[in-house]
Specification:
Structural class: alpha/beta
Catalytic activity: a (3S)-3-hydroxyacyl-CoA + NAD(+) = a 3-oxoacyl-CoA + NADH + H(+)
Distance between the termini: 65 Å
Number of helices: 32
Number of domains: 3
Keywords: Fatty acid metabolism, Lipid degradation, Lipid metabolism, NAD, Oxidoreductase
Domain 3-hydroxyacyl-CoA dehydrogenase C-terminal: 194-293
Strand content: 5-15%
Protein name: 3-hydroxyacyl-CoA dehydrogenase
Radius of gyration: 28 Å
Pathway: Lipid metabolism; fatty acid beta-oxidation
Number of strands: 23
CATH architecture of the largest domain: Orthogonal Bundle
Strand order of the largest sheet: 3-2-1-4-5-6-7-8
Amino acid sequence: MPYAIRKAAVIGAGVMGAAIAAHLANVGIPSLLLDIVPADAKDRDIIARTGLQKTLKSKPASFYSKRGAQLVSIGNIEDDLEKLAEVDWIIEAVIERADIKQSLYNKIEQVARPDAIITSNTSGLPAHLLVEGRSENFRRHFMITHFFNPVRYMRLLELVPTADTDPELLPFMRQFGTEVLGKGIVICKDTPNFIANRIGVYGFLSTIHHALAEGYTISEVDTILGTNMGRPKSAVFRTADLSGLDTLMHVANNLYQNAPEDEQRETFKIPEVVQQVIDRGWLGEKSSQGFYKRTKGADGASTILELNFKTLDYDPQPKHRFDSIGKARNLETPEQKISTVLNGDDRASHLARETTADALIYAANRAPEIAETIVDVDNAMRWGFNFDLGSFELWDVLLKDPALLDKVFARRDLPELVQRVRAQGEGTFYRTTAGEKQYFDFHTNSYQPVPGARGVISLDALKSATGKSAVVRDNGSASLIDLGDGVACLEFHTKMNSIDEGIVEMMRYAVEEGSKQFRALVIGNEAPDFSAGANLFLVLMGARQGAWDMLEAAISGLQQVHQLLKFSPLPIVSAPTGRALGGGCEMILHTHHTRALAESYIGLVEVGVGLIPAGGGCKEYLLRQGASVESQKSAKSNGPFTPARRAFETIAVATVSTSATEAQELRFLRKTDKITVNREILLRDAKADAIKLAEAKETGTWQPVQPQMLLLPGAGARLVLEQQVEGMLLTGKISEHDSIIASHLARVLTGGDCSPVTPVTEQYVLDLEREAFLSLCGMEKTQDRMQSILQAGKPLRN
């Protein structure tokens, strides 16, 4: 039967349930959030109401925009259960007790539509146990949908069907989860705690056992097993604090009880000292202390202390230095970093080898039992725990280096699956053939294509494919790549995709020469960030050396290439993801259309380094705020001061959107721009948008914009803005140099010495931008701010 989800209900308004409702709102799906009625409650909806309010205040934010909360209705399961008949998907997210869940299902079954999808957000209870005693129809429409916390940001969504689940429901939920919810979907077998928690919690407890037995401190472990071992900065113990020690205990106990044949069962016993910590209520972030505790000194400074396993007191964290970690820090790729640490001979390398061997052997032994493919195991670890490499991707790093393999697995037998891939495969779990990535299928002992979302575009695959090269041109800083169907992609290669001369040159080439070969252009890449802006190092060096002609030429070149994008007859679509700051934001402002990833953080942040936007950002943002002559003629116009004031209020404090939705509210994106929630399909969607524009151009229904005239308020309005700045300076809210930067910005946004009734050209505003930028570059305090960002990665308030 065909499925569709237009409205949902979430039962259980705790941390997970409320966050699931928030994410449904993020993607435009209304939901009903229900919970129990407390005894003697005057407000019968108080639990659901509180859950929603906490979610609105959560940090990081659960909603793309707080306006999304309008899509969440609250209620309780006594008064509002019959409303479940109106929804397509019912998500149960109540306490992890099978009896309570089964009792709730009995109530749900009496009111839900026969075709309603019913899922549980359990983190480990077996699906077949939950549906015992339910009707055949209920079982056909039931599965587990295990979200990870925080729901908005964690990509992993584990789907666990039962033997009775409708065969059509699983592919529907897989596509819905991918395309609508933006999740990375992993299909799990119905085994205790599924894939991510089964392997991840084993690795965590194995590490604790090693630390306790060999005397490693908490901060030592996190220093060793953090980013240099391909893990997030929170490493091991800080990650446990974030997820909650009670959650860890629950998962571990569930595995110990429900996996009696697991050869590593005893590892899942919570160590006595950890149980003491939990019994004291030190559960991590939720209780303000766990393995770590944040305290404030008499001077108000915050200090993070670590738990001492021997005394259960909190001690200051010492600095830990290891030769292997020091060498790894200077390397680029996760593979290089991990290999360096594992190859070392110090205390860090010893722990890294022992814990890595434990985790990889366990993953190889469990994979056929808990998953259909090694790809699902790897995706679960990367998406569920933010590891750089999945278990079998890490196996391949070792399998390609026999000496390192022997060093890590000294005195240990390699698992049967590893022996099989060496004997019957090509010696590694993954291979690339004709640009296609393939994995070793343990069912058939053959290599199969790595599955992905429908129509995924991989720039790496296009560039490495045999036959005619997809790379049209490459200058080191950027490439022009043929995506097929008459669409090209402009990809950046610099560090953090910062804009340098090579990128500017390639943008010019893409428009001027690319239009002879292609009918549309996408500007996008597969890096974590779209672009962190202009190359600040080059700006600082130019300013320090007094190379003003060079700097002016560079700024002018950036302005003109952005104008070239804006007025190009070739339809251009930008596809930002992650950070699009400064010059990266300016680039977006000048393209014809944007297809943004939902998790895009867009803003004009130049004031943070003592500058103002000068690549056309001020000019375009004024136009977005309604500064064009055409907009001023509108009946809704409040005059030329309002656009200047709005632009000033946003740019002067370096406002950055916390999502693509908020970027639309801030007008960094247009209302007509589109949002994709899944990183994997962003380029696919951007290409589709580009083709639509190209087809519209071919039918005469699309044409590039023409130069616009702006009506700006002039010197009188500048004085008003400067008075506001002076008030902030007098009250100590900003520094003197902040006020100087703000004054330069106010002059640009109000049009310098222009008349408030005489329109000015776009070039006029560009000239004001460039003049202010160069003037600020010459100031020592601005140069100090640039240097602070480059050296310490932190803004300087001087």
